[in-house]
Each structure stands twice: as structure tokens, then as C-alpha cells.
Specification:
Order of helices and strands: EHEEEHEHHHHEHEHEEHHEEHHEEE
CATH superfamily of the largest domain: P-loop containing nucleotide triphosphate hydrolases
Number of domains: 3
Radius of gyration: 23 Å
Number of helices: 12
Structural class: alpha/beta
Helix content: 25-40%
Oligomer: single chain
CATH class of the largest domain: Alpha Beta
Strand content: 15-25%
Mean pLDDT: 90
Number of strands: 14
């Protein structure tokens, strides 16, 4: 799974990326500090299964507190996008092309409105920021389709091939699936048997709705602890009532995680408080941390970065977490519940088996629910936090 961080220049994308992943990236208050995309690992929270099974898990990737399992997800931070990016402005074509493989977008918005649309210091407008980026992403999708549409539509119509299957195959690089195409056709009531008769507006509407379906977007309202941010946040939510908008402070989260790494505090990302280690901290550091507690954690319940990642994966993409588990709950090396996989909702037991390995899917006999010890069949729809043992021939 790949979550793409997008936004205008100087909105705090790189700070968000570093706060979420602790990757060593350049953070600067000028446009296009990021040129090449940065890749790193963030984590999403899953209620630990081990505590229900009276054991302590030993993850191969991520970590577990005993209460919460932190499961890794890949993050990608691309350079800031400006108006005209879909036409190449600001190296926009290059930056957009790197986003093809993203499963969704997290748009970082400067909710304090202290940077212009181009990322310069000055008066900003978070509503205009969202509208600009949405417009550029939609134009990007439209242009990709327009390049091949005439030939593709003629071929589909003349050969009477399945429209959804043909479009999904042609645009598999954008993660387009047949179910996405059919969903859009139903919404817009477009005739898939006569695509050559579609108008330019039909194609524009089709690509716009398809982009929403295949690349959904969540808004991270960054710098929420700055002056005027709460007023701007209320206006943004009113302007985009259907979008998921989460206030956050990347600066605060980064400071807390760096302090924890330095041994100055005890802190787990996404929590509402931390513990200062008194004999290791200066008065100035203590004052700065107490300010974060008062102005960010007490006010919002957390710094918001972890909430953004959790809601991106589980609320927007609607993925579920599944624990593969044998009868002894451990692998051959003794690692207890070593893995946790993030899979699409409605994944079946057989789908899960194939996701582990083709041979496991081919030799599937049944699955065992580790909680109930009861067998389930290949068509059993898995639920979030299921522990499953796959039995093979």
C-alpha cells in the first residue's frame, strides 16, 4: 500500500512525512525544497490481537505495545504542485507521474493560511489550495485518458469487448479496476457500448469521478495550532462537507518523536500525552514540550499525524487488518503473531491464502479462526483483526 502526500509548495509536506516516518529529509521554508520523491514507512494502529489470546506478539515489521499493533504502510512525499502542474508547470508532469502507483492521496493544507498558492510567504486561502490541487489532479487524469481515448473507444465499440475490462487493462498503471469503471458508469449513466458517441464533457466527467474512486483524497489540515487556524478549518469543512478533513500539527509530532528518540520523553505516536524524563531535560526543552501539550495535545487530543494515517487506511480505503496464525500462534523461529496484513474489505479466506502465496491458495482446504477454533470455508469474508490459520493439502 502506498499513500501519496500532495499539496502546494511550503505547506508542510516534508515535515509531515518526517514526523510520520522519521526519515531524514530536507525541510525548508522555500518552494520546491523537495525535487525527487521521498519514500518512507509510516504506521497505522490496530488493536492488538495478542492481548485477547493471552500472549505477547513479536512483530517482524512494525511494533506492538501490548495494547496496540503498529503496522507499516509506505509513504511517498512528492514536490509541491502548483496551478498548471498538469500542463508541466513547476515540473508538474514529472511529479504527477510519480503518483500513478499511489492508492490514495493525503493533501497537506496550510490551514494557518500564511503561504500563497505558489508557496511564498503571504496571505493564503486553504479553500483555494484544495480547489487548485483537485483541479490539477482531475486534469491530469483527463489528459492521460484523452491521449488514447479515440483509438481505445473505437476498438471497444467495433470489437464489442467489455468496456470495464478494456479500460481497466489499459489503465492498470493507475490502479484502475473493473469494479471502479462499472461504478462510475452507473453513477453517470453512460453507455459503455457506444463510447465513440461520448461528448468531451462525458469523458471529462468520467475521468473526474474515476479519479475520486481510484485515488480518493483526505485532507490533513496542517499547522492547526497556529493563529486563525480554527476559523479557517471551519470554513474549509463548510466548503467541502463530503471530504474527510483532520486537523494536525506536523511540527508538534516531529518534535515529540525526536524528543522520544533522544530519550527526553516517553511518547508513543498518536497519543494524547507524554512523560518527561526529568533528569535528562533542560528548562527550555521542558517549556517547549509543555507548550505542545497545552496548545496541541490538550486541544486536539493528539498531534493528528497518526489519525491521518489511520483514517486514510481504514476509513477512506476501507482496508482491514488480518493476522496469519498457526495453531501455536508462532512461526518456525518462535515469533508470536509475527505478521499483520492490510487487505481490502470483503477479502475472503481464499483471497487471503493467495495473498500469502500462490501455492497456499492452490492447495487451500479450509481456514481456522484462531479465536473460536472453528473452521471457515474459502468464501468466508474476513473481518477486521481476524486471526486466521490456513490449512492446505
Amino acid at each position: 500500500m502506498l499513500l501519496g502526500l500532495v499539496g502546494k509548495p511550503s505547506c508542510g509536506k516534508s515535515t509531515f512525512f518526517k514526523a510520520a516516518s522519521l526519515s531524514d529529509v530536507l525541510i525548508a521554508s522555500y518552494p520546491f525544497a523537495t525535487i525527487e520523491p521521498n519514500h518512507g514507512m509510516g504506521y497505522v494502529r490496530v488493536e492488538a490481537l495478542c492481548k485477547e489470546l493471552n500472549t505477547k506478539c513479536n512483530p517482524r515489521t512494525g511494533f506492538c505495545t501490548g495494547e496496540t499493533r503498529f503496522v507499516p504502510v509506505e509513504l511517498m512525499d512528492v514536490a509541491g504542485l502548483v496551478k498548471g502542474a498538469s500542463e508541466g508547470k513547476g515540473l508538474g508532469n514529472k511529479f504527477l507521474d510519480t503518483l500513478r502507483q499511489a492508492d490514495m492521496f493525503i493533501q497537506i493544507v496550510d490551514i494557518s493560511a500564511t503561504t500563497t498558492l505558489e508557496g511564498q510567504e503571504g496571505k493564503g486561502d486553504p479553500i483555494a489550495d484544495v480547489e487548485m490541487l483537485e483541479g490539477e489532479l482531475n486534469k491530469w487524469y483527463e489528459q492521460i485518458f484523452a491521449k488514447v481515448w479515440e483509438k481505445l473507444s473505437r476498438t471497444i465499440q467495433s470489437t464489442k469487448t467489455d468496456f470495464a475490462k478494456s479500460v481497466a487493462k489499459q489503465f492498470s498503471g493507475l490502479r484502475v479496476k473493473e469494479v471502479d469503471v462499472n461504478k462510475v458508469l452507473t453513477i453517470l449513466k453512460l453507455d459503455p457500448t457506444q463510447p465513440t458517441s461520448w461528448s468531451k464533457q462525458d469523458l471529462k466527467d468520467f475521468t473526474r469521478v474515476l479519479r475520486y474512486s481510484t485515488k480518493p483524497m483526505l485532507i490533513a489540515a496542517n499547522k492547526a495550532d497556529k493563529p486563525n487556524s480554527q476559523e479557517n478549518l471551519a470554513k474549509l469543512k463548510q466548503a467541502f462537507p463530503d471530504m474527510k478533513i483532520i486537523p494536525c500539527s506536523a511540527d508538534a509530532e516531529l518534535s515529540l518523536r525526536q524528543a522520544a528518540n533522544a530519550g527526553l520523553i516517553e511518547y508513543i505516536q498518536g497519543e494524547s500525552t507524554f512523560k518527561i524524563i526529568e533528569n535528562k531535560i533542560s528548562d527550555k526543552q521542558k517549556e517547549a514540550l509543555e507548550s505542545i501539550q497545552k496548545n496541541v495535545l490538550d486541544k486536539f487530543g493528539s498531534a493528528g499525524i497518526q489519525d491521518v494515517l489511520d483514517k486514510s487506511v481504514f476509513d477512506l480505503l476501507k482496508y482491514i487488518a488480518i493476522f496469519p496464525a498457526g495453531s501455536k500462534l508462532a512461526d518456525s523461529k518462535g515469533n508470536v503473531l509475527p505478521d499483520c496484513f492490510l487487505l481490502p474489505n470483503k477479502t475472503t479466506a481464499l483471497d487471503f491464502a493467495y495473498s500469502l502465496h500462490t501455492d497456499i491458495g492452490d492447495k487451500f482446504i479450509k481456514a481456522i479462526d484462531v479465536r473460536t477454533k472453528q473452521p471457515v470455508g474459502k468464501d468466508y469474508p474476513l473481518k477486521h483483526r481476524d486471526g486466521i490459520e490456513i490449512m492446505t493439502s
